Amino acid sequence: MTADKASVLNVKDLWVSYATESGPMDIVRNVSLAIRPGEIYGLVGESGSGKTTLARALVRYLPRNGSITKGSISLGGTDLLSLPSNELRKVWGARITMVHQDPARAINPAIPVGEQIAEMARVHLGMSNSQARQKALEMLAKVQLPDPESVAGRYPHQLSGGMLQRILIATALTTNPQFLIMDEPTTALDVTTEAVILDLVRDLLREYQTAVLYITHNLGVVARICERVGVMYAGEIMEEGSIQQVFKQNFHPYTLGLLGCVPRINKDKSDIDLHTIPGYIPRPNALPSGCIFAPRCPLVEEACRQSRPDLIDAGDGHMSACLRWPEVVNIQPQSAKHARSERDASLQEAPLLLDARNIKKQFKLKRSGLANLFSWKSDTVQAVDNISIRVRKGATMGIVGESGCGKTTFARCIAGFETATSGDIILDGESLPPAIAKRSKAALKNIQLVFQNPDASLNPQHRVGESVGRPLALLGNVSQREIERRVRELFEAVNLPADYVNRLPHELSGGEKQRVAIARAFAANPALMILDEPISSLDVSVQAALMNLLAELQRANGTSYLFISHDLAAIRHLSDWIAVVYLGRVWEIGSAEDVFAPPYHPYTEALLSAIPIPDPDARQERIRLPGSVPSAVHIPVGCRFHPRCPRKLGPICETEEPPWQNVNRFHSICCHIPLEELTRLQAPSSAENEKERP
Amino acid sequence: MQNSQAVKPAFAPGVARTFRRLKRYPATLIGFTIVGVFILLAIFGPLLAPYKYSDQDLANRLKPSSAEHWFGTDQFGRDIFSRVMVGSRDVFTIAGSGTLMAVVLGLTLGLLSGYFGGFTDEAIMRLMDVLLSIPPLLLAMIILGTVGSSRLNIVAVVGFLYIPMVSRVVRSVVLDLKTREFVEAAKMRGENNFYILFREILPNVLPPLAVEASMRFSYSIFLVASLGFLGLGVQPPSPDWGMMVSDARNWFNTAPWVLLFPAGTISLLVVGVAFTSDGFRRMLLPGGVSG
Questions:
Q1: Which ipTM was obtained for this model?
Q2: CB contacts, 8 Å: B200 with chain A
């Protein structure tokens, strides 16, 4: 990259190395960046690609064993690498600021938030106490927090995650810095909150001449707010260009692969298998000799293995580190397409497997602090309030909702870990006791669960083959040879090498652990599989491979899934039926296609419009939900959604519970607004208009 | 920070890696060496000792360090170096058995209390609170003063006193483990409590238990020495470090080595065990678990 005179931040040929037990490791290699004032530069990459290390190196805030071995960093003419540490401290906060991923940990819990912003103004802008206070209020108003006066005096625990992230953004912009690093600032937030924050960041930064490095793993977020994007892989930048260039005409097979991994809301498992990238990111001390992506690349040829291709300008500032870049443009991600069969029709008529009726779950909540000492009263949390869901044989019921909506509690009630306060769980015509201890062995075997966190779902002291074989051994009268044979079969079914049976969980990657967990769940040959956010903690390419695997196993075994997720695209991809849950209740339920097409419940509509779609041309309705989810202790009267509903009718929403309206035999919406009116309001919806890649 | 999800972890062979790590923590290496030497002394001490521990040489009483008597001689002309060497066996057997007893009983109570919770937990933990509320040395003196002092009684007292500490640590680990997904998965496939407790939970309790046990051991050494000092330890003429320190008080002005060498030995071993315990913590609990 040419040193652009207009750029504020100029990074040239940067190498960052960590001293580790197995010798020095170059985590970031040969990275050059130039960011202009007012530009939002997106840096995307999977975990382990070195994006966070790069960001820390840019501000010279590396851990003790990390060092910058080569290259230069200049910020507005200042050479950051030669700056002594006392000068550097003056740059931090004044000219460079940072917004971190987890707002709850980035803000001091013991200081009122307004005071934390004022501190920035006092230290770096030399303001007096009263000026600084004024500045803090001004910043809070800038990030659109209602009632800045009252917010300024509050402590972090009194504010929601979305509000805290706004406060971090306000803090970071207080000094009007030249360079701002945002490291996954919305990853910890719900999709509706994320949409609001992204809008805010985009609008707010127009006022400032700040160069922004926006780090994320989410291509949809990049497409929504960035102007230019760099795709990082194993410590190097593979492709760089404007959003249009990279998303519409990409010149690198890795980018192509990443884009193909993301499920789209207009396609599902019966249309396509998701594209996957085979293999793993190479370790920094075991890099391939040629192109670092060669071992996983579908276009690899002999020349790629010979020498490492340079990042070259392929025209108009669009850089690619691929020898065969002119050919990449003409390639579509290889997604196997399935012939759409009569499967859908037959599934709608398939017999019922699970019939969960009117499930309620309340938790008693002790009051905190002194009140607890003087009172025996406790508050009740209605985590699940009357949810009824049916799962048909061989089909997937997807439950989607934001954090705290009760979807996981519901799943745990079905599994028996939580004892439902009331309601019936009927599995295959047989009523199940609510508590797991009272269920028969056969009933237990019939419901299996795959958990969210692959690290906790396998016993760290058991070899993974043992974990998978145990459910078989429990059945009794199965010989050891038979068990070993089945374990090998299961490992093959989840695409794990057979010699993995003797490994311990810590020797496996996150995706592999999740495959073992899936194999273990299938070992019991269950009728119903509960998938509680099984892919949320994994990288997109790993997510795609697991979703394909789950779809394939369902086709082969006819297992029913209860799939729980906050990720609408994943839900859409895997589910035949979808229930949308908010504050412990279902608001819309129907076949996946119906739910994702108008008329929608206003909440579904808001969720859909908030999904970050990895396509810069995607036009979405801009529907944003104000505020945050109310606590399940003080549930609003009338329609629970009314305080945030963008389509609120009027007083009726605040007083009366909405009625269920049937759109068709399978699709129902719980709302006061008549269906015809919803259809009319939502007619020009463009969430479905997501264009396909040319 | 970047996690290593997609990066395949590399594995150096366990021993080589452990050693390489040890080199980075000199304190741990020192601890291991000290404990190793004392273990050798405990086993071979009586064979290696230059003199018999009870041999009196009244002509050479209260002599300072010399080539013949490295640590000097005591009021009866006995070789202090030999007495310290021989005494280490009692320290290891008594403090070790006491620790073992505390660990076995504490583990059992901790597992039951943490896993079953409810009334079992309340009953066990309140009982532990009662034990904890009495100063350990006082309780030990009362018990030994009543039932008399013998090796077995000292072991029993040491074990008894440290049960609450061990059981609390085990309980807190179990409380964390029992809500982990792998335990829920075991319940989901219909495992019984016995299997969950011993096959799923117990193996994961062992690393923090090893750390706790090594720490208890260093406390036990001190307790045994304190009891010896108070005259409630191993009875003469067996060489007991605590008793040696106690006896030497009378000659401290004229012959300080009689006190300093046994006292220094106690300190050295306790420090060595503490370093070792710290090393265990670092190796076995890389994430850092309190306890």
A1: 0.79
A2: 459, 462
